[in-house]
Write a structure and sequence with these properties.
122 residues, alpha+beta, Alpha-Beta Plaits, 4-stranded antiparallel beta sheet, 5 helices
């Protein structure tokens, strides 16, 4: 009986340790990935203004923790990626139609031909 109890206790402890370890590597933030094709005739200065506007979003919207805009490699017709890390799903949902989004869209949407968006979390 003591062996069975010890075995069950060991299994329970290992399960708890495994769950705790998984939660350490599984953040609740949301990664918002946008891949972009710019309109024909868009200048490098216009693209840079859109990327700079994305970089300014964390200061304008508290729900955004980080932004990445330096595309190292792109496949297909998409030439740039913009990645935003939202604090959680609620912050992502509240961002839609926010003043910060609308201000950035004034620079971004006039030069965007097409984009594809992925929202990813754990």
């Amino acid at each position: 009986m003591k062996k069975i109890l010890a075995t069950l206790l060991t299994v329970a402890l290992l399960a708890c340790a495994s769950a705790a370890s998984a939660s350490d590597t599984a953040p609740k933030s949301v990664i918002h990935v946008v891949t972009v094709t710019w309109k024909a005739g868009t200048t490098p200065e216009q693209i840079q203004a859109a990327l700079d506007g994305a970089q300014a979003l964390p200061a304008a919207y508290a729900g955004i923790a980080r932004v990445w805009t330096k595309t190292i490699k792109a496949q297909g017709e998409r030439t740039h990626a913009i990645v935003m890390e939202f604090k959680d799903e609620a912050a992502l949902k509240a961002y839609a139609k926010s003043d910060a989004q609308q201000a950035w869209y004034k620079v971004y949407t006039p030069i965007r031909e097409r984009s594809t968006t992925f929202d990813i979390t754990n």
